[in-house]
Known about the structure:
This protein is α/β, with parallel strands linked by helices. The protein folds into two domains: 3-92 and 166-273, TIM Barrel, CATH 3.20.20; 93-153, Orthogonal Bundle (DNA polymerase, domain 1), CATH 1.10.150.650. The protein has ten helices and seven strands. It starts with a strand and ends in an 8-residue tail after the last helix. This is PHP domain-containing protein. GO terms for molecular function: 5'-3' DNA exonuclease activity; 5'-3' RNA exonuclease activity.
Amino acid sequence: MRIDPHTHSACSDGTDSPAELMTKAAGAGLDVVGLTDHDTMSGWQEAARAVPFAGVALLRGTEISCAADGVTLHLLSYLHRADDAGLEAAFARARRSRDNRAQRMVERLSQDYPVTWEDVLTQSADSHTIGRPHIADALVAAGSFPDRNAAFAGPLATSSPYYVHHWALDPVEACRLVRAAGGVPVAAHPRAASRQRRLVPDETFAQMAEAGLAALEMNHRDQDPEQREQVRLLAQRLGLGLSGASDYHGTGKPNRLGENLMPPELLEQILDEGALDLVRP
């Protein structure tokens, strides 16, 4: 069984609609695809409606923005209840903070680059959350950078003077919220040093494990072999499962659907523990 549990649609920072994502998942030979847009569940229904036509099962999820002592961490929540008040309140607060942060960054960038807030809104027309990828797309459209990666390596980097922080959940509290909502939490790319200079310490993951963390994402293109081994050893020490995923974003990133996969036994655990089921063809 080929399972790619971590992808994004245009409802956050991907470029495909949820229905297009399902069709492309079928073309990539996947049996199950996880839709995990940032801090939103807005793509779930469209993706579910496409399941019978695509012939690919849908694993419903969300990628939650977290931060511990100023260090960013993303947490994947699978099969949580869509109507859970606590989780939706956290998502709404994160989206508001992300939108405000984006506006402040554009104000700074506009002093040196040909970009306006209207340009960013044009790039994020289908999204329910506005983030740095949409600013990157606006900079690319203006001819300032050749692609998203170049923009992220430059003025959108966390070390850049244009960068502005936004509110994010504490990862331990996020694990508790996910479990209270019937979801199953998995830490996304926990040792991807290329994304930021500082990484979440092992002790935080130990606390997350006590709060219900189920697994760590090991096989991800942003983690080299040494970093993947670090993840494997950490998971072994904490008694956690191991996952893998593409983190597909459409044309926004080079990540290919199905380039890394989740082991079937981890999917079985998620199905056993989650409040929801797969949406099956």
